[in-house]
Amino acid sequence: ALPLRFWVNLIKNPDFLFDIHKSNTVDSCLSVVAQAFMDSCGTSDLRLSKDSPSSKLIYAKDIPVYKELVAKYYSSIKSKKIPEDQMNAMLGEEFELHRRQYVPSEVNYLYWALYELYNYALEYNEPLTLALEKDQDSRKQKLAHKLNQVRYR
Questions:
Q1: pTM value?
Q2: Which residues form the Plexin cytoplasmic RasGAP domain (predicted)?
Q3: Which of 15, 27, 132, 152 is most buried (most C-beta within 10 Å)?
């Protein structure tokens, strides 16, 4: 599901990746292609009728071929077995790499998260305070005042 979301997002929104303008016509065409991609990766059978949208009917005869290609792709991935000890070693290395990269080993995760939140609150204190002052529930709880108390401690 994650690769599908990634690719559908890029297909429908090439402007996320490239510095381009996407016209309404191109947007409609890309939506049709993205829908065909989603239908190809889906596990349910495509049920079409005379009332089905034309965007689904365009690729209807190709979808079974694409579904087969997707099934073969995932089957080939599934058939590649990695020994458990090798997988554990690789995951351990990745964990250590990212743990050292983002969280110093001597700092507790909770304190690190609080530290990051504190830095964020310091950096964006003014817009946070304004937003808290505008919100009725936040005003009742005096959250803007409490935020400033934390800031000056």
A1: 0.51
A2: 1-126
A3: 132
